[in-house]
Amino acid sequence: MIVVMRPGATEQEITGVKTLIREMGLKDQVIVGTDLTVVAAIGDERLKDCAVVESAPGVDKVMRVLAPYKLAAIETKQQQRTVIKLSETCVFGGVQVPVIAGPCSVEGEEHILQCARLVKAAGGHALRGGAFKPRTNPYSFQGHGEDGLKMLAAAREETGLPIVTEVVTPSDVELVSEYADCLQIGTRNCQNFKLLEACGNQPKPVLYKRGMSMTIDEYLQAAEYILAEGNPNVILCERGIRTFEDHTRNTLSLSAVPELQHRSHLPIVIDPSHGTGHARLVPAMAKAAVAAGADGLAIEMHPDPAHAMTDGAQSITPAVMEEMMLSLGRIAEAVDRECVKVSEMV
Amino acid sequence: MIVVMRPGATEQEITGVKTLIREMGLKDQVIVGTDLTVVAAIGDERLKDCAVVESAPGVDKVMRVLAPYKLAAIETKQQQRTVIKLSETCVFGGVQVPVIAGPCSVEGEEHILQCARLVKAAGGHALRGGAFKPRTNPYSFQGHGEDGLKMLAAAREETGLPIVTEVVTPSDVELVSEYADCLQIGTRNCQNFKLLEACGNQPKPVLYKRGMSMTIDEYLQAAEYILAEGNPNVILCERGIRTFEDHTRNTLSLSAVPELQHRSHLPIVIDPSHGTGHARLVPAMAKAAVAAGADGLAIEMHPDPAHAMTDGAQSITPAVMEEMMLSLGRIAEAVDRECVKVSEMV
Amino acid sequence: MIVVMRPGATEQEITGVKTLIREMGLKDQVIVGTDLTVVAAIGDERLKDCAVVESAPGVDKVMRVLAPYKLAAIETKQQQRTVIKLSETCVFGGVQVPVIAGPCSVEGEEHILQCARLVKAAGGHALRGGAFKPRTNPYSFQGHGEDGLKMLAAAREETGLPIVTEVVTPSDVELVSEYADCLQIGTRNCQNFKLLEACGNQPKPVLYKRGMSMTIDEYLQAAEYILAEGNPNVILCERGIRTFEDHTRNTLSLSAVPELQHRSHLPIVIDPSHGTGHARLVPAMAKAAVAAGADGLAIEMHPDPAHAMTDGAQSITPAVMEEMMLSLGRIAEAVDRECVKVSEMV
Amino acid sequence: MIVVMRPGATEQEITGVKTLIREMGLKDQVIVGTDLTVVAAIGDERLKDCAVVESAPGVDKVMRVLAPYKLAAIETKQQQRTVIKLSETCVFGGVQVPVIAGPCSVEGEEHILQCARLVKAAGGHALRGGAFKPRTNPYSFQGHGEDGLKMLAAAREETGLPIVTEVVTPSDVELVSEYADCLQIGTRNCQNFKLLEACGNQPKPVLYKRGMSMTIDEYLQAAEYILAEGNPNVILCERGIRTFEDHTRNTLSLSAVPELQHRSHLPIVIDPSHGTGHARLVPAMAKAAVAAGADGLAIEMHPDPAHAMTDGAQSITPAVMEEMMLSLGRIAEAVDRECVKVSEMV
């Protein structure tokens, strides 16, 4: 931590800051500049609330030196990447670039079965579908709950696709964990820390979406809640951030891919459906994601988007998915990765 | 809802949209323009997922006409404002502009008692303090839990100040509701819909903070979750939004005050502490809030900010609060409101 | 400047950074931490491109210590504030809070005369009106040019109000400077550095609007372009920033008032018309601005907003202005400032 | 244009809106809904200031139906794309994906020659380099001016690479146009409309960068300034937008590629250097851009970034560029485009 003093800060104020730093268990080192003085705090500041020093008299600002997360940091695993397996043919963090696809909501038994078959036929590697839905509007469809989980399990049974489904509150975690191969935490729950902890306390991998206004630092700090409870299998997911842009529902920030890979060992998946909000932009952004080095994709596909119960505007059709998957395979190859149908895997 | 067709949309595509609209239980009316055709959907679209129409062939975009909330809308109460009473001397939505003040966290029994006395002496009308803390960093202090609630109750006992404290997960709602005079839902839980529902199902008023990347529409929609469960006493709270600005932790958007009062009957409180993140900016923004017509303030005050367990950087000292309260009283008067010490109330 | 090395940076890499720092004419000081090493650069970094050090091997990030402006900084004037006089009764930076008001565009001779009379009658202290308009759309009305300037001068002649008008390109500066009492640089030209320089090379004060996506640091750096050319009379103006909010055209960031007053000696004016984009939000935000300590206001007023040639949606009527001015007078008094009609000045 | 009336708007207010619409030369059509009334305005609203209607009594809000640009719209060219040729081997808008590369500034004669050779050797198709630099800080290096243009011309002479260079003020346009093969308008001048007009009045193509807080609508409207003056050769360029993210200097919004191609016939180039601000993120984002369908790239390359006079932090080295170009070639092929060295073109 670097504490920048105001121009003209007194000796007493500098001493005050040094005392505060020592009270925090850190060492201090003073640097006298031409215009002002800076006090460096030496030691592990990651567990400290650095901002508090800003309240001390004579302080202008405080700058962190160390990123405020540990388990998620790449140094922790000596640059080795975490590999997370949902099934034999759906592995994140390796050469493969798996595609999780399916409808926003599980709409019914027949419907999700049909979706699963279409996903598999198009070349997808996992099935997504919401049984518990966090809806912006209280009057909207909120999902089929446990029945939806059973329908998903039936679809897995038939197709062999592992299932990824959202959990929205701590008390549902155990139930969802029984059915799902991977629990999803949505953007609206990105800082629902009790939910993060609960997901850290169960054995299934977690697809943890970035909050729509989270910085990368805040995102990895929050992921730390899951890791710190003992679950090492966290798949990160960029799904668009909130900006002034109005041609998309969110702005998909693809630079998160190389940045997260630079800082963390966790795999990173891109969701171009929520990341744009418009089906017509999904294929281009999916291709861009793979080229940028993403470790996977999460995509909304619906056999009849105009009649989807939720998120129809951003759901691609099975025909579009099929064509897109062919492109993704070619691009993956061009960046020395692999994105092929399960039936064509070697 | 207005559906804008693409230039050159076919008769068949227009018919398709009309069918979709009717399937939604709405009526359609076609407007043929010089460059393109528009289909208006007539009826109550508030309960509908309008975006889905965007998936229909030939559609360019869909624009909502009605705001997507009902109970929170000002029309619902025929322009009358909701008045919420935490105590005889702390009433939101009337002439009074109450100030909720106190430390970010309940740090200990003596500490919170001291804070309560200082708040009362400075002229505050309610005591805030966190017993359950949602912290960005998993290694930070997470609050004293039920013990903290008991300490708050003791402080109320002595000073008579009603207490406002945060609840972070549905399973704690009943417990917090027993102790608190008003439950706070924080910005990180702004779309934790299960928590909103739980708070809608208990009798105490709710101080519901705006999410840091929520639009006003989304905010009122989410408030609807609480109202729809039967709790009419929701106090809205603007606490800063996430923008590109870096001189503050958040950008306090004061235009939310007149805008929310234009759209909703619910009282609106401003939190200039989180809204700026720096103690030195708090008094100016508190004054601005009262001048803009805010129905109350929520402020972090700490007897020794540099040693606060949480949020010290944005906590003002008792001395600053005292001076600020005098200014607020004068400004309130200038806008025909009232912000005075309990002992000076008529 | 603080250079943070990557964990595991080699001795050679640290030496490389030290060499770079010395090549920049600064001194270096190494701080060896528990997890990583930091190199501090001592000396006046304000004239240096610090970011370049980021390219050196082993560097993780670079953090500036000194703000990158000098003449605009409050230290430069030993905490004294700059006072700028447009006329005897319109002075920025002192006790008075002058209000600049008028239509977006000078629409015609009779029209601007009528506006000037209405501004004066309502209690305004200066007249605004655009003769050269930077319009988002090339097909929109672009202003009356020099004829417009003459109309403004005639309005000044009759009412005694000083005139503030925009200049959009360097080659017009001399002309506008002949007529205007104060040149305005709009948000779209906030980093049109050639225009800033040209305005720095003429004798009239400059009302310099913040860019809609400028940080405070960037804003003061750009103001430095005007100051560095020898013109010390720069009035800063916050007019709303670009954020995700959609209930306003921009988000008026009032914390800019105390922040700019903390960092700079230049007066700061608020424009609640562009800052919100909706006439109905203007009075509340004008009041908030005065309470926050603003040194003046710039407001769009039009006798018939629905027929205004430009910006009608955000123009208040003379009747609304009159009522608002009474409120502003009361609020100014409550913060020990003054905002009264010229005829009532002592 | 759709005018939404407030609930309870009177007949007289509705009539007022109808009159306003007719005064604008448009036709009106009233749609009576269950909760409120809407008035549609029929006709070409693109040349109208729709927002003004918001000022009329009883109006809640106004929504545009038609995008506010014409010449830039894809319908104008019946879905045909504009093809822009800087040289025989550098063509934007076709199968080829040309790469413009070079240093931020022209630093000297030998330097720019060396850069040109390196660009060519690595496989670049055009040389960039600034002779006139718009710098955030007035004390920074501002470019070599006309001398810089001569150095660029000499580099073209030797290597055959066409040159792209920035122009920052209208009075320089003629001069820059004499030397350059393509004029660049930077993000800070995105709404310097006099400069846009001047560039519309000279014969060379224009590389026109998106403003860092411009919506796509505003961007195409502003491009219209160049087109409307008679210059059809505008190359669009996304270079990052201003958001809350702090791990990059800007957020590169790649969805601009498919969106701009959906709305406009103009080619779109991506600048991953400014779009991220960090050299280490450039190759991943360049690859993503090509996969998303970009029509070209603009990249900062410097032989010795740590000693670059400007923008060193975001400049890649020749070695990195060489490797990146090989990847880009493979990805271009995977999306049926082409990005190869001039010497390997068929």
Explain what this protein looks like in three dimensions.
The structure is a homotetramer of 346-residue chains. With 346 residues, chain A is of the alpha/beta class. In chain A, 30% of the residues lie in helices and 17% in strands. An eight-stranded parallel β-barrel of chain A has the order 7-8-9-10-11-12-13-14, surrounded by seven helices. In chain A, strands 2-3-1-4 form a four-stranded antiparallel beta sheet, with helices on one face. Chain A has a two-stranded antiparallel sheet with strand order 5-6. In chain A, strand 11 (206-209), helix 6 and strand 12 form a beta-alpha-beta unit. In chain A, helix 2 runs parallel beside helix 3, helix 5 crosses helix 6 (216-228) and helix 8 packs parallel to helix 9. The mean pLDDT of chain A is 94. Chains in contact: A-B, A-C, A-D, B-C, B-D, C-D. At the A-C interface, strand 2 and strand 3 of A face strand 2 and strand 3 of C.
What labels would you give this structure?
eight-stranded parallel β-barrel, 346 residues, alpha/beta, homotetramer, four-stranded antiparallel β-sheet, elongated
Task: Present the secondary structure layout.
The structure is a homotetramer of 346-residue chains.
Chain A lengths: L1 E4 L5 H13 L3 E6 L4 E6 L16 E5 L20 E4 L2 E3 L6 E4 L6 H14 L3 E3 L17 H14 L3 E4 L6 H7 L2 E4 L7 H8 L5 E4 L6 H13 L5 E5 L17 H8 L4 E3 L11 H11 L3 E5 L17 H17 L12
Parallel strand pairs in A: 7-8, 7-14, 8-9, 9-10, 10-11, 11-12, 12-13, 13-14
Antiparallel strand pairs in A: 1-3, 1-4, 2-3, 5-6
Helix pairs in contact in A: 2-3, 2-9, 5-6, 8-9
